[in-house]
């Protein structure tokens, strides 16, 4: 269903590079039940790691309020992330409330699939969730368990994908972070497994998000190489790119057996098309996946500040935005202390 924007073209909020604010990614928790080596390695996020206390997390009321404010500024797509968002109590009720906000036309969720049963998937769908992304970094248990580091099996994640499909949470996207020498041997197998299923695999270049994953440039498998490997077995052709804000380069199989995507943040940066703002679980606004400290919205939400004042504050922040980390990535950016991906979602 098409929803008319309540902003005129002249009133569209843009940053210094003329990028409009269209997408809001909301982290519902900084906790996760996986310890993926590229995101939350056990060496750092171990038993003694101090996660956010419940009282500092945004409440459901605060999330709904700030989402409504962002919708008034032009946001029409909401992505719920984490940590692992399915760890958040009362998630269906929160989604139902977000779905009633004027201007919000798309609500999606990214999950590792570990807690997604058919009953839960149907509950989320009925609440107003439109679609889902499931993270799966390999198809063999040895590689996958080595990456998630909690001995969680591939079969259980595939069960979650099937549950999402049966519940009607489509299109379903399978996200695979590709790391050279770790799981890049699974690229063609992953493509083969999901060809003809209607599911869309998105191969993601290993990124230097946060400070704890030990990222090295020589571990990145370039998107062009990923496409070449698959194209050698099943010829691909590019699909016309989606509107501004879509980050995946899309390709379809020439034999009609579906499509794949690649997210090439490292080798083919797409900063100039980024329309995303990110909200951490404790209410800090980040303007980039590779941001540093963020802007405190929680204090304003919990004060006597009005929605109009908060909207003005956000408008001023976005209008000064000039972030383009991936385009500037160099030895000079190596020492920047970036927010962890587990804190604001991918």
Descriptive notes:
The protein has about 350 residues and is of the alpha/beta class. The chain has a single domain, classed as Alpha-Beta Barrel (TIM Barrel). Helix content is about 30%, strand content about 15%. The protein has eleven helices and twelve strands. The chain has helices at about 60-70, 90-100, 120-125, 140-150, 155-165, 185-195, 225-235, 300, 305-320, 325-330, 340-345, and strands at about 25, 75-80, 105-110, 130-135, 170-180, 200-205, 235-240, 250-255, 260-265, 275-280, 285, 295. Strands 7-8-9-6-5-4-3-2-1-10-11-12 form a twelve-stranded mixed β-sheet. Helix 1 (about 60-70) crosses helix 9 (about 305-320), helix 2 runs parallel beside helix 3 and helix 3 runs parallel beside helix 5 (about 155-165). It starts with about 20 loop residues before the first strand and ends with a helix.
- State the low-pLDDT regions, or none: 1-10
In CATH, the topology is named TIM Barrel
Q: What would you call the structural class? A: alpha/beta
Q: Specify Rg, calculated over alpha carbons.
A: 19 Å
Q: Could you say how many structural domains there are in total?
A: 1
Instruction: Examine the secondary-structure arrangement and name the CATH architecture.
Output: Alpha-Beta Barrel
Number of helices: 11
Q: Shape, please?
A: globular
- What's the CATH class, please? Alpha Beta
CATH superfamily: Aldolase class I
* Main sheet: strand order: 7-8-9-6-5-4-3-2-1-10-11-12
N-end to C-end Cα span: 27 Å
Helix content: 25-40%
